[in-house]
Amino acid sequence: MSEPEQSTSNSSVIKNSITPSTSQQVPLKILAIGSAYEDTILYVDKFPPEDGKQRAQRVEKRRGGNSDFEARNIKTTTCIFRPSATHAPVAYIIHADNTGRNAAEEAKMIEYIDTKDWRDKAIISVEFEKPFRRGLEVLIDKADVLFFSKVFAEGKGYDHADEFLQIMSPYCKETALLFCTWGSAGAMCFHNPTKKFFSAPALAISSVVDSVGAGDTFNAGAIYGLSQGMPPESCLKFSCELAGRKCAQNGFDGVVEKMKLAAMKKEENAANKQMI
């Protein structure tokens, strides 16, 4: 295996803001596959021991899952609705201050899409989050974009994102783009066609307020960035910043607006420097 080149996301390729203005944005054509849940989040001082009892400091309910779309103006016409159901799926999440998919069926879906003449116009992304979920390996060579979590990499015996991505790259498509998030250490990206690494630090925030959904936020940022034609290093930096801003607040509302405001400030600062 040839030695990959490494770059950082503060490369000179990135100029001013990487957040597209409204006039520059490309219309989104993204199909998300998942379920809509009612998330019940229990906030505690520390994660309770097995079979232990602990009082939650507070409880919060949100619409969650991988398909919390309607409130954000995303069409749900392709979704399956079950009007006879009396209860929505519920997920309980324990949020500690100190702290399944059917892969075979998904593989069949991707293989079906691969037979279509419009396949080269579609980009398929797959998230690999839980290392011990059986059968996920069948999806590795089928995805165009792969999102790996730190937990997944560590579960496979790796302590560094770059080492993990380099080992995984031969098992992926030659055209694949691999991401791996690493918590407070930021994230890395491996561009298989060029064998180049890109890294980005986590956004510096005063404190982590709510990390529930941070990984999903990173993935959403990367999908959005790629849909807008961002190069890998810019896309990585954008996703890290988006996930960081989400961690600095409760929930998701207002994160996009904060990104736009930050982008405007960067553009103003750059313009002021040019004037000076």
UniProtKB/TrEMBL annotation:
UniProt KW Chloroplast keyword: no
GO molecular function: kinase activity
Domain Carbohydrate kinase PfkB: 132-250
Domain of life of the organism encoding this protein: Eukaryota
Keywords per UniProt: Kinase, Transferase
InterPro entries named in the record: Carboh/pur_kinase_PfkB_CS (IPR002173), Ketohexokinase-related (IPR052562), PfkB_dom (IPR011611), Ribokinase-like (IPR029056)
SUPFAM superfamilies to which the protein is assigned, alphabetical: Ribokinase-like
Region of interest called Disordered, as start-end residue ranges on this chain: 1-20
Protein's name according to its UniProt entry: 12334_t:CDS:1
Organism: Racocetra fulgida
Organism phylogeny: Eukaryota, Fungi, Fungi incertae sedis, Mucoromycota, Glomeromycotina
